[in-house]
What we know:
Blueprint lengths: L4 E7 L1 E2 L5 E6 L2 E5 L15 E3 L2 H5 L5 E5 L5 H4 L2 H7 L4 E3 L1 H14 L7 E3 L5 E4 L2 E8 L6 E8 L2 E5 L17 H9 L3 E7 L12 H13 L5 E5 L5 H13 L3 E5 L1 H12 L24 E5 L9 H6 L12 E5 L8 H13 L3 E3 L14 H11 L3 E5 L1 E2 H13 L14 E6 L2 E7 L6 E4 L2 E4 L2 H12 L1 E9 L4 E2 L4 E5 L4 H24 L6 H17 L4 E8 L1
Parallel strand pairs: 2-20, 4-6, 6-7, 7-8, 12-13, 13-19, 14-16, 14-17, 15-16, 17-18, 25-28
Antiparallel strand pairs: 1-3, 1-21, 3-4, 5-23, 9-10, 10-11, 11-12, 21-22, 23-24, 25-26, 25-27
Amino acid sequence: MADPVKITFLGGLGDIGRNCAAIECRGEVLLLDCGVLFPDEDMPGADFVLPDLEYLRDRSDRIVGCICTHGHEDHIGALPHALEWLSFPVYASPFTLGLISHRLEERGVAHRTTLIPIGDHDRVRIGSFDCEFIPVTHSVPSGLMSAIRTPQGVILHSSDFKLDLNPVDGRRTDLARIGAIARGEGVRLLLCDSTNSEVPGSSRSETEVGEVLRGVFAAHPGRRLVVAAFASHIHRLQQVADAAVETGRKVATLGLSMKRNFALARELGLLRLPDHAVIDVSEAEHHPPGRVCVVSTGSQGETRSALAMAATGDSRWIDIGAADTVVLSSSPIPGNEARVARMINNLVRRGARVVHSGQVDVHTTGHGKQDELRTLHTVADPEYFVPVHGESRHLAAHAALAIEMGMPPDRVVLARDGEQVELGGHGLANRGKTTSGDYYYANGHVVESGRELFAERSILGSHGVVSVVVVLSRAEGRLLARPRVLGKGWVGADSLVDLEKAGADEVAAAVEEHLASGQGCGLERVVRRAAGQFVNHSTGRRPMIVPIIIEV
Length: 552
């Protein structure tokens, strides 16, 4: 009997982000992606949310490699953190490896891996896994679908994809090769992107956005164009550059990742424009506004992004004003709407005109909608199917779509983060929770798990902190000094002094009563309760109470 294959989902099934799956067979582990999720408002202080790295740590000596399907942060961003704990080779296209290598060098972990380039239609053995890589169209160059041959047949992982019949670089999703695999050895299991599974129809071609951008450039002669887009969206940057060159403009980059990715794409021949059309952003102010186009990071309004800083007048390189038209060539990621709106207001206050996707079609998705998903399902004709890459509602909608197309319901398996599916002679089954599926957070140079830290930070951010210092002689059973109550972020300065004094009296009375009772323990609890009751009764607030007991 052929060996079973297990797939454990360590992220990406419940959130759009931190994509990571571990495929296990014959004592080996092959990783599919290792990405981050950007934190929401319930995670104050977190830089990134990581996959469940503990599961991988327990299998560190069995990991034969990691396939990174494309260069978006939600698929590669956790590698620097994982490689602090683990060591394994990384397989990806040259462009994706270029993006990865910068992150590994910055983190100081480049020596812990070998970066192995793969290309369209390459077939590579990674451990005992026979892997074939098929080109897919997405909003970043060189995306790859993975056909992984196992003892249980072919597992086809779609990666993020769309079916664009007229892509900017001419590189289409290779449906013919997928069909050939399906008609030959067959697709035993399909793992497919669910991001747009709720959206009817098909996505617009990226080249249509280029036509819109040309119209925007033509409509703003004599004005400097500042175009914000994702730094990895090289196809979009190509169309911006084409429109700029056609209208006699020089192109400058703003933002470190934009400068870096722009240079990498030109070096690899993925972004084409003449050298004379490129200037450093430091030169932009020395050219007439109508002769300059600045491509910038910050389309999502991130606080310290290049465009957000320019919008508040804090940019070192450009001064936004009445001669500027700012184009946001993206749509706000859910949760970012308020930040984007705030940035637009700041830009308008500085006199700029702003063009965004709510006005004209300066953006299109990189993920296939329902008609494209139906096409892939039809061509791949899988025996079993697990929806991946999406929130719970996206996964459920994708499962419903597959069943609507005629797939037997018992062959469509819904899974969530932390769960494991097993493919064997019996078919495909969800074995349930194999790992906690906990969130791991990168806070600076520290990786932590659990949500308790954020609960504490939320209290500190909303209500402040009150520390209570008690100095006593345990031997004599008495206070050696009046307690000190110190508040930060609790109440304003006008009320603070009086409340601190009154609070000290309340705490002193409680401590003296406790000491008089002869009880030998529980003093910290007594101090916390007395201080907590006082601050709540006097202000109606619930700051964090920090007792500090000093025994002399």
